Every structure is written in C-alpha cells, then in structure tokens.
Amino acid sequence: MTAITASRRHMLFGAAALLALSGCKPAPSATPASDSAATKTAIDAWPVGMQLWTVGAELAKDVPGTLKAVKDAGYDVVETAGTQGKTAAEFKTLIEAAGLKARSAHTNMPKLIENADKEINEALALGVEWLICSSPQTPAPLPAGSDWIVGMTKAMTADAWKMNAEHMAKIAPLVKKAGLKFGYHNHPMEFKDLGGGQTGYDILMSAGDASLIRAELDLGWVAVAGLDPVATMKKYADRLDLLHIKDMIKDEKQPAGFRSTEIGHGMIDWKPVFAAAQTLGVKNYFVEQEPPFLKPAIESLKESRAFIAAL
Fold first, then answer.
1. Measuring CA to CA, which of 72, 74, 100, 234 is 20 to 30 A from 150?
2. Is residue 130 within 8 Å of 241, Cβ to Cβ?
3. What pLDDT is recorded for position 250?
4. Are 259 and 251 in contact (CB under 8 A)?
C-alpha cells in the first residue's frame, strides 16, 4: 500500500470475476464440520484489527484524532500503510497514545528492492511483528492513467513474477535475521492462471519455505480472483498468519462493476471464514475497506465491527 496511488484501489474488471463473486456465500450446509467447531467468537479469538489504509484520507487531515476515532470504533490493533509523513518512531508514539498497537506494516517490492534495510528498520521502529510486501515490482512502469489492477494484471507475466520471487528469496532472510516475519499480501492478479495452472502467487511462495515467507490473504481480492476464500486459506495453511477482512459488492457505477463495502454487506460468507481462521491458527485479521465510501469511513468501520461481533 505504501507510496501507491489511489488508482491502485480501483476495482477489477470483467463478468468472470462478478460471476465468481456471486458464489462466495454458500448455503449453511456447505460449511465444513471441522470449521464450525470454533470455540470462541471472532471478537474473543483475536485483537480486533484494521488496516489504516481505510482511513488514509482522515489521517492526512488529523493523525491523532483519526487514530483515537479508530480506537473508539472498537479496534485494538492496526496495520500501517506508511507513516503519514512522520518518522516510524513518531507514528508509533501516536498509535500507542490512542490506545492502539501496530502489529504489522505494509511496504512494497519496489521499496524493498531499493533499500530493504530501510524498510526493515522502519518496521522495527514501529514495533510490529510482520513486514508485509503489499504489491510486486513491474517489469516497466504502467501506462499513464491505467487502472492499477487492470495494468498490473496485464504487466505481471510469469517472468515478472519470477523476477519478484528472486528478490523475495534475498529479502526474506534479511527480514527474519532482524527478528521480523516477512509476508506477502495479494491482489487478484496473483491468482491469474499463467498457463498450466501456474499462478504468480505460487511462484512467489516458491521463493522460500514457510519459515521465511508467510501469507497475508486479502479475502476480498481472493474472491474477486474467482477463488473460494476458505479453500484458499486451507491451501496455504502452512504459511497463513494474517487475513485482510474485506467484503465486495456489485456496483455498476464503478469501472469494474463492484466495490468494497462494510463487512457483512457483500458477497463473502464470513462465519465459515472466521471458523476456519481459528482452526488454521491465524494470528490476526485486519478489517479493510477501500474508496469510494458511501458514508464516513469511521462509520463503516463501526458497522464492520458490529457485524463481526455478532457472528
């Protein structure tokens, strides 16, 4: 997320993705018996987390006030997406003054390639446990004015993913040596079939074993890619530490015909997701919603938390 323009958050394209999304809410009978055996509620099982990208516009105007509003909305931990023009240490102080804890930090592959030590040191100064790569390096700049997701899907060939995997193979050990966990956050393009069932995500995961490369699955984008969220969680269970809890809804006013929305208002069936997350040992989740917002972002965060609390 860090240093990526808002165009990155434009929604994906195509009827195929919409068709896949329409099937994300299975009938209750489809819930695996093992996943329904969770003993804690989603609120009790983990600290309630959110990705600060959700309130990026608010943070740009008032960092302390926005962080306090996030805490007042019922959130306990956050995942950063930049430091709002402050040093990492200054931002950590503001986060903790609001009664929050930064548990994970987003960066991206271009920044890691340019100066991995800087990104690692910033994560250490924030006091987080995970340094997450939120997006890959493209072989060449995307065309001017290109929708970020559309452009990335076209640009990221098998060779492009292999180039990123080569960099990850060098960066991940540095992150581990610093005492942090290194993970990767997906968008839909990682799951595009590159031929013969090969995907960019699997190429990235082949860059190192589970002790080096962990997974943060963004389930909204997983669904957009046409995959079942719970099945995808199980597929990468040996690496799965973190989740982005994001819901998606059809919206013909948007370029791709859908947008993110409050949790429980979209197309994903969340009860089996949280049950599976407990079974699989997920360490934390972060609620994320992306522009455009139809109401103030803090109000949307309150609605999302209320839904999760009622599961």
1. 234
2. yes
3. 79
4. yes
